[in-house]
Amino acid sequence: MGCVHGRPSPAPTPARPPPQPKPEQAPPQEAAGPDKGEQPVPAPAAAAAAAVTEKPARRERRSRSSRSVAEARLGGSFVNRARGEQVAAGWPAWLSAVAGEAIDGWTPRRADSFEKIDKIGQGTYSNVYKARDTLSGKIVALKKVRFDNLEPESVRFMAREILILRRLDHPSVIKIDGLVTSRMSCSLYLVFEYMEHDLAGLVASPDIKFTEPQVKCYMNQLLSGLEHCHDRGVLHRDIKGSNLLLDNNGMLKIADFGLASFFDPSRKQPMTSRVVTLWYRPPELLLGATDYGVGVDLWSAGCILAELLAGRPIMPGRTEVEQLHKIFKLCGSPTEEYWKKSKLPHATIFKPQQPYKRRITDTFKDFPQSALRLIETLLAIDPADRLTASSALQSDFFTTEPYACEPSSLPKYPPSKEMDAKRRDEEARRSRAAGGRANGDGTNKARSRDRPRGVPAPDANAELQINIDKRRLVSHANAKSKSEKFPPPHQDGAVGFPLGSSNQMDPLYEPADPTSFSTMFAHEKSSVPTWSGPLVNPSAVGNQKRKHKSSRSSKQPATARAR
Ligand SMILES: Nc1ncnc2c1ncn2[C@@H]1O[C@H](COP(=O)(O)OP(=O)(O)OP(=O)(O)O)[C@@H](O)[C@H]1O
């Protein structure tokens, strides 16, 4: 760990949603790279420096501009003084230079005041540890964020995450308690309150089946947290089970704001469509929308609600093409009116020749009626028809019996993080291998029975793995920032369907696998589904399977990050 540490002063909480710091990227297919344009936080020092050195080109402008140049100079010296103070307070200069606003008013924590207990999570860009704060005795989570050679853009993206976290203050949103950093090292620890579980882990656990009041309790907290984020001008853009953390008192908290962004509905700015983990990604993003809003988080919330009732993820696509296919088969394809009005970039490629019918009610016929009605409105294809978090909280799902239970009345579960599910999986595999060797033949028989239910086949994460592999390649080559590391959309889109084939949707296609969601969805945990997909190159899947072995959890694919 590093050598410095600190405790924050109260975070500023502006009454109005903060403006988006900078325009996000232009539509990916028009931009030079998929994620280049998305700017995290402004670099005040750089902006001020630019303003100071800028000379008015024309004489007549000189007097007008001299005032602003003087102001910029003052601003510049203010920024420099603030930076000096931050460095004097123990912050490393590289952090203060790029993320001054994010650490404003905080003092760094000393690393040696924490005792690491265990590694509890792993994300695409971080490792998460359980640790003891030796000053307070509290158990905390330390999220260690890796930087690539202190590339300022990566640091700014992390700064955006911290700024967003500091602007939020709600019982259903994770709280950041401080930062641990080092003048010497290239990493930073974010200190969070410790949460025992995540929802993905609980859903994957074969012994846990939620009752309706419990589902209402979780959904009530999720939607209240989202309502707060949206009221404060924040889109989360990565709502999924593993980002919904739970403590032993039944409190749910939305976590991982690494993909979150400020937005201002009155000032339209293009945003990247390469956000939200695939299974929870709404159709407008898959169709390339760059002008979107709170509806993206509400779609993901609808997927979570159905997942809690079904006991497994409802649309586990392996590729973007397959994901869209699954969405159309369950939710119907967009209406003619929507295709025309939305003018979505990928509409011509993905518009099916024959429309698909909506089948949510047929598919989930065992779900409670009020839950079905809420799912119907959250999983509306047109985001304009989706409920907001506030209106979802008023729906009869919450206002009719059986009511949501109290969080404190929820059962106390054994450790059940996504990572624990992965560990269980690994242990079962090892003991099968050992038993197989001892018995000579037992290994294969046990396999399908022992795998936690609802866990997708390993290649479900193939698209992520390919992105990560590509990212690593580029990273090794030029150590560029994260947002430049993902393949351009045309390459990414190519993942998952055979080269030369048409990726036009075929409404007549029915997957060979009868357990895919196009069949009736039983309101119970079923055995591990096999995954079907019309548009996948089998040889590519073979490679992906092999690659996946070294990747993180097989449970849910992570987002191809557009940081
Ligand atoms: N406050 C916390 N308390 C306990 N566990 C946590 C906490 N924060 C994160 N974790 C665990 O660590 C995992 C990874 O954390 P997080 O999602 O913030 O990292 P990430 O790098 O952004 O991940 P991803 O690539 O999945 O988006 C979570 O799924 C969770 O299991």
Summarize the structure.
With 563 residues, the protein is α+β, with helices and mostly antiparallel strands.
Task: Explain what this protein looks like in three dimensions.
It catalyses: [DNA-directed RNA polymerase] + ATP = phospho-[DNA-directed RNA polymerase] + ADP + H(+). Keywords: ATP-binding, Kinase, Nucleotide-binding, Phosphoprotein, Serine/threonine-protein kinase, Transferase. One of its GO terms (molecular function) is ATP binding. Residues 415-430 have a biased composition (Basic and acidic residues). With 563 residues, the protein is an alpha+beta fold. Among the domains are: 83-194, 2-Layer Sandwich (Phosphorylase Kinase, domain 1); 195-429, Orthogonal Bundle (Transferase(Phosphotransferase), domain 1), CATH 1.10.510.10. It has helices spanning 44-53, 59-88, 93-103, 152-167, 199-204, 212-231, 283-286, 295-310, 320-331, 336-342, 347-350, 360-363, 369-378, 389-393, 396-399, 418-439, 442-450, 462-478, 489-494, 538-548; strands at 114-122, 126-133, 139-145, 176-181, 188-193, 197-198, 234-235, 244-246, 252-254, 261-262. The protein has a five-stranded antiparallel β-sheet. Helix 3 runs parallel beside helix 4, helix 6 (212-231) runs antiparallel to helix 8 and helix 16 (418-439) packs antiparallel against helix 17 (442-450). The radius of gyration is 24 Å and the shape is globular. Residues 1-37, 39-68, 437-555 and 558-563 have low confidence and may be disordered. Bound molecules: adenosine-5'-triphosphate (ATP). Adenosine-5'-triphosphate binds at residues 120-121, 123-126, 128, 141, 143, 174, 192-195, 198, 238, 242-243, 245, 255-256, 258, 417-419, 558.
